[in-house]
Amino acid sequence: MDQVRARSGMLLGAVLSGALVVGTLGDAPAANASCFSAFGIGNGGGCTSNLTSIAIGIGEGATADAGSAFFGGAFSFGNAAVSAATFSFLSFAVAVGDQARASVLPSVLSLAWQSGAGTTSTLGALNIAVGVQNGTGKQVTGATGVGNIALQVGPGTLTNIGSLNLALSGASGGDGTKVTNAGGFGNLALNIGNAGTAWTQGILSSTTNILGNSIVMAQGVLTAAGNLLGNGNNISSAGPYPNTTLSLAFNLFGDGNTVTAGWGPFAIAGAIAQNLQTIIRSNPGININGGSPSSAASVSSSRKASPATASRNRVEIAASNNSDNSDAGTDTASATRRVGHKKPRASSVSRGGDKKTGSGADSSGSPKKSRK
Predict the structure, then answer these.
(1) Which long-range contacts (CB under 8 A, 24 or more apart) does 291-299 make?
(2) What is the CB-side half-sphere exposure of residue 42 using CA atoms within 13 A?
(3) Which of 207, 313, 339, 357 sits at 20 to 30 Å (Cα–Cα) from 126?
(4) Cβ distance 259 to 270 under 8 Å?
(5) pLDDT for residue 151
(6) Does residue 9 carry a pLDDT above 60?
(7) Cβ contact 237:243 at 8 Å
């Protein structure tokens, strides 16, 4: 179910982004080399305004349409540059450079600015979208909702949908396949480098992908995911939306890792200087490089138990030795007693000999008279 919701969110972003692009690429007035129209005067040649708007187009084939804007304007500077302010109030569309396209679709107090070949659009209120192209890959930048900021430098697709979100993308080149998305409320998506994906959906969540061609995704409430200097990684802090809370997943200086932090709360999963590892933490706790404090404590306790066991063994051995020594002492004493009993027998024989030798004398020592 969470995968379906995630895909639905991504599909919604793609649809809205496509709508912005279609709105930008809509029919424009026939263009001349340059045109100027203000407050409904000078319409034609590629520029259109009304009583409250201004439209300026400078460049071969440049067009500016502010015909349905109220107190706003459309400005195009460059060959084939296109700008449009459509059903907008106090909003401005600025296209600078060849084949630059900018539009504020129904918007209030919004700005869409495209510099270089690419497309930038806004839809909603209090939105700012800026696209600056410095490469040759495709660039699309869009902000939809209320109070969003979308800034992209270099090729790629950046979409900001919701309220009070900040989406930033920077690249020095690339083929335009890089994707940056922030959707929901108060989210951050930061994607720095020529490739990779930073995708945020939820409330007060963030993703960061810096100098790595990896997929980084955060979904839920107060969740975060990050990748630094790693390629081919899949880093996600996500579960059944919006149940994931206070979870963190990250990868530092490693390639080919899958790091996942689940429901939480306080589920932390990370890889530091690891390659081709799968690290998962779904419940509250920490799993860094495949180990956790609980397992470490278990190992530590077992190590602490070993000296106690050895001490117990020594005590038992000592007791056994004492028992053996006691038994030996008993045997020795018994032998001694047996030897001591023999000596009196020897003295008895000696006394018997004395009687034989001393039969001629009485007990007083005087000799007996012999009979004749």
Answers:
(1) none
(2) 17
(3) 207
(4) yes
(5) 98
(6) no
(7) no
- CB-neighbour burial class of residue 366 (10 A; exposed 0-12, middle 13-18, buried 19+): exposed
For residue 173, give Cα distances in angstroms to 100, 132, 137: 18, 12, 8
Closest CA to 25 of 114, 91, 107: 114
The whole-chain average pLDDT of the chain stands at: 80
Distance CA 189, CA 183 (A): 9
DSSP per position, 43-83:
-BTTEE--TT-EEEEESTT-EEE-TT-BS-EEEEESTT-EE
Which are the contacts of 291, defined by CB distance < 8 A and separation ≥ 6? none
What is the arithmetic mean of pLDDT over 321-339? 44
With beta carbons less than 8 A apart as the criterion, state whether 93 and 102 touch. Answer: yes
**DSSP helix/strand/coil, 230:** coil
pLDDT at 305 exceeding the cut of 50? no
Question: Percentage of residues in the chain with pLDDT exceeding 70?
Answer: 69
Residues 239, 258 contacting (CB under 8 angstroms): no
Please name the residues in contact with 142: beta carbons below 8 A apart, sequence gap of 6 or more. Answer: 16, 17, 20, 21, 120, 121, 122, 123, 129, 150, 158, 159, 160
pTM of the model: 0.73
8-state DSSP, 40: T
Query: Helices marked H in 154-234 — which ranges?
Result: none
Least confident of 148-152, 234-238, 337-341: 337-341
Residue 71 and residue 53 in contact, taking contact as beta carbons nearer than 8 Å:
yes
Nearest 5 degrees, angle CA 42-CA 101-CA 96? 75
Confidence class of residue 31 from pLDDT cuts 50, 70 and 90? Answer: low
Convert the pLDDT of each residue in 102-111 to its tens digit: 999 999 999 9
The neighbour count for residue 253, using CB atoms within 10 Å, is 13
* Tokens describing residue 172: 């020095």
